[in-house]
Amino acid sequence: MEHILIVEDDLAFNKMLETFLRKKGYHVSACSNSEDAIKKLSASTFQVILADVRLPEKEGTVLLEMVRDKKLPTKVILMTGYAEVSKAVEVIKNGAFDYISKPINPEQMLNLIQKAILALKEDSIVKKNSKSPEKPIEESAVEKEASNGYVAGVSEAANKLGDYIKLVAPTDMSVLIIGESGTGKEYVAKRIHEKSKRKGNVFIAVDCGAIPKEIASSEFFGHVKGSFTGAINNKIGHFEAANHGTLFLDEIGNLSYDLQMQLLRALQERKVKPVGSNNEIEVDIRVITATNEDLGKAVELGDFRQDLFHRLNEFSIQVPPLRQRTEDLLLFANYFLDKANEQLGKESLGFSDEALVVLKNYDWPGNLRELQNSVKRSVLLSETREIEKKDLPENIVNHTSKASSYKLFKNQNEEQLILDALEEAGGNKSKAARILDVDRKTLYNKLKHYNIEL
Ligand SMILES: Nc1ncnc2c1ncn2[C@@H]1O[C@H](COP(=O)(O)OP(=O)(O)OP(=O)(O)O)[C@@H](O)[C@H]1O
């Protein structure tokens, strides 16, 4: 969880900011002068400092100097009054990430914070790249956030997925995308298309599970008028429609054996023959397929042709389930919140602390689709500017996987789990230790290890 330091001497505004950012899922510390801020900066790592330009004792710019001189991995955003904008511009020249004028628009501020965090990540990537110059240049930070409605995520699993997409996209290889339902396989396919040299041409998505067996050949390869009862006009099939572009075949495991053979032939010969026609049409397409079943097993059982499987599986990509990319949960939840606001004409600002705990403790078997639907429903039901626990779907609220999620205590989510437990315990360490099922001493050691301050 990203750690933000607020330095603001207007205590009411300070508190309001703190509450708002907590609800957005950040770990927040606050103080009212630069002396205290310097102490906090020496003791903990903060990804973003949100400081008033004018602070008692010393100006907010001393924080900027400290970050710069100590080369801290921190971005500084300065808050200014209208009259101080010229000063803010001057401090940007001295290394501040950006400034924001009061009165502050919360959404604008949130955007700026997200941008700062992404820029920080980009800095560390650039650093890594400069150590190994052969490594290809990473995609820009903004792309990592959301481009064309695609949220890439920031988790380890998301980075790996992004690396594979980047690697295979410029080639013409057939890609098999594997993942549970709702993990975003079609989004990944589209992303590959958008990053390929075919991006100026069409992307056609076909759900193989939804095509009746009797008309499947005609759907894929087209037909000529009169070729069968009901063929009252010529029809262009998906292959021809996708010419020069990308054909995405979802639920590929649902194709009949007969159609699998026709598909293989079309892919090998790069030609299709519409039903009832003697003419073959040349097609130049890239095929991306997706499945949520074990296609290898289907091959073993003789339900799926081995030759077609190899033809489609020149490169495979596994899309992780949401429960394995918990660091991305809030990013997606906030993205879906904004999307729902837009679609429903609502103005929800974020999630209450309680609602956040519920979201984090749920397993999300329906993955991103389930998260999106749950957030949208909650936005619709919410009567306040904040999504509360009661607005969330009942099955999610009643799900009690907390115990099992805390069992993960020794894995990479450890820091997050500690923060969640502390949040749930209202900052009471003994209570948090009990929730985590560890003794107080272990918890103290862990707090020190992760630089978590209370
Ligand atoms: N990277 C992403 N960025 C933003 N939204 C996403 C992303 N991935 C998925 N979604 C959202 O989640 C929903 C489900 O994604 P998608 O249809 O790609 O999943 P799928 O794995 O193909 O599902 P199925 O197996 O049921 O076909 C999409 O409608 C989209 O709104």
Automatic annotation (TrEMBL):
Entry keywords, A to Z: ATP-binding, Nucleotide-binding, Phosphoprotein, Transcription, Transcription regulation
Coiled coil (residue ranges): none
Domain Sigma-54 factor interaction: from-to ranges: 151-380
Record's keyword annotation contains Isomerase: no
CDD domains, per database record: AAA
Family matches, as InterPro entries: AAA+_ATPase, AAA_lid_NorR, CheY-like_superfamily, Homeodomain-like_sf, HTH_Fis, P-loop_NTPase, Sig_transdc_resp-reg_receiver, Sigma_54_int
Pfam families, A to Z: AAA_lid_14, HTH_8, Response_reg, Sigma54_activat
Superkingdom in the source lineage: Bacteria
Response regulatory domain mapped to chain residues: 3-117
Residues with 4-aspartylphosphate modification: D52
Protein name per the record: Sigma-54 dependent transcriptional regulator
Organism: Mesonia ostreae
